[in-house]
Amino acid sequence: MSVVLSTCAGVALDAVFGESKGWHPLVAFGQLAERIEQRFNPAGGGWRSHGVSAWCLAVLPLTLLTWLLSQISGLGWALEILALYAALGLKSLGEHARPVAQALRLGDLALARERVGYMVSRNTAALDTTGVARAGTESVLENGSDAVFAALFWFVVAGAPGVVLYRLSNTLDAMWGYRNERFERFGWAAAKIDDVLNYLPARLVALTYALLGRTALALRCWRTQAPQWDSPNAGPVMAAGAGALGVSLGGAAEYHGELHVRPDLGAGPAPKARDIERALNLVNGGVLLWLALLLLWGAVYA
């Protein structure tokens, strides 16, 4: 029952306070990761073994420290809640996505491009209103999985050490997991470990999206479209999410100066401003569903 209560407390803290506007532990970790990468991959193109060593040095000591602190009587329960709170990005997701939808509604395309640029790594300067709405909707669906549901999953499975291990690994994937000359080999370990840690959560998220939207269409899109996507985890999440919303996502997008022709996802009309908010509602509804199931599980096995 303590896991159930700690999970609810962590979600409640995020709902009330959101992401810290000042110092954040993940920002400090990102700075540490940059220094480690400069040490192990100074000229770029480092070997896979260098990437494995760098990942271990960045993640394992902090995970072990979290486990040791969580064993201290009277401190462990507080650390559990704070670790989940620091790892969650639910309120932050809404704070980034809603201004995009609002700017689109007001017809301010320049502001909408700027706002959605905070959420995605693609080039947003030339996006039209549909492109902005598509980028925002895709980001909400994918980041809902990475920054919310996967953190909840690993917290329930392995407590504070589990959520710290996951969140740090996910951060390193975002920093090192690029398929370019600098990170192709060095970032291999970070990308693969993140894929492994997200494998089960992503499929639970895809199922959650399907259950809360147009279920039959979402399941069909997941089955037929997800295998065509490059990412083994983003594919199911985004295909099921697009189907649940009844919109068409995917298509061409420019990343770091290169045009990527991505497979189509979902079915239906192109997304609009309201679909960004519908995607947020899907994520929020999914969190409530997970918490309800967790409370039910806790009540049965208390």
UniProtKB/TrEMBL annotation:
It is a multi-pass membrane protein. Keywords: Cell membrane, Cobalamin biosynthesis, Membrane, Transmembrane, Transmembrane helix. The chain crosses the membrane at residues 52-70, 147-166, 279-300. Signal peptide: none annotated. Converts cobyric acid to cobinamide by the addition of aminopropanol on the F carboxylic group. This is Cobalamin biosynthesis protein CobD. Belongs to the CobD/CbiB family. InterPro entries: Cobalamin_biosynth_CobD/CbiB (IPR004485). The gene is cbiB. Its main location: membrane. Pathway: Cofactor biosynthesis; adenosylcobalamin biosynthesis. It is found in: Cell membrane.
